[in-house]
Amino acid sequence: MDLSDLRQSYTKGSFSERDLLDSPFEQFEKWFREAEKCDLEEPNAMCLATADANGLPSTRVVLLKDFSEKGLTFYTNYQSRKAAQLEANPQAAANFLWLPLQRQVNVIGRVERISKAESLKYFLSRPFGSQLGAWASPQSQVITSRSILEQKLDQMKRKFAEGKVPLPDNWGGYRIVPESFEFWQGRVSRLHDRFIYKRDEAGQWVAKRLAP
User: Which Pfam family, giving just one, matches this sequence (predicted)?
Assistant: First the structure.
């Protein structure tokens, strides 16, 4: 399959030093709000990269569920592959691709579990079916058929028929505590605008331009 002619010209915007906000958190929020206004499904979808203790990487798309200067929070099963990798190697990268704006944001940082109270607060906000799904799925484990999941889901529906679903012990949130942010704006001739924020020796965020 030859894909060599499959390409787009990036002409929708530019990003210069004068556009940079002092804080990468403010810059991320600004771009995120602009992505929300575009014809874009789930602007909070991010490609999460993790690696095991031997450095073998894996990626998957998860949903960002909270963002503040504390970091970026997402939720998962604590017995999943991503969770096992994060426990062995608590570093991760997250990439947001907002094609209607021809933009990307990449965040790299250490990862920590959030508190059980925070996880519970979010879990209780989820739809009933999603709550049941957290109980029904042995995430990342090999199963012989989909019917196993459906049977388990039916079992959970009966168990929690009154509609009060407790937080599973093996389910909760992680927070990426950023060590760097990279903001990428597509430009013509593949001479894209790239800026990376990192902390200096005094702990202040400093942005520098990167070659594309």
Answer: PNPOx_N
The answer to whether residues 196 and 208 touch, using CB atoms and an 8 Å cutoff, is yes
Catalytic residue among 190, 194, 199, 209: 190
Q: Residue 39 pLDDT more than 90?
A: no
Residues 77-117 pLDDT 10s: 999 999 999 999 999 999 999 999 999 999 999 999 999 99
Beta-carbon contacts of 166 under 8 Å, excluding residues fewer than 6 positions away, are: none
CA distance 125 to 202: 39
Q: Strands, DSSP E only, in the chain?
A: 45-51, 57-63, 66-68, 71-77, 91-98, 103-113, 171-185, 193-199, 205-210
The H or E element spanning position 117 is helix 116-125
User: What pairing do the DSSP bridges indicate for beta strands 66-68 and 71-77?
Assistant: antiparallel
Cα–Cα distance for residue pair 207/195, rounded to 1 Å? 6
Backbone angles phi, psi at 201, to 5 degrees: -65, -25
Domains of the chain by range and CATH? 17-119+170-210 (2.30.110.10)
pLDDT one-digit tens code per residue, 139-192: 999 999 999 999 999 999 999 998 899 999 999 999 999 999 999 999 999 999
Instruction: Evaluate whether 198 touches 209 at the Cβ level (below 8 Å).
Output: no
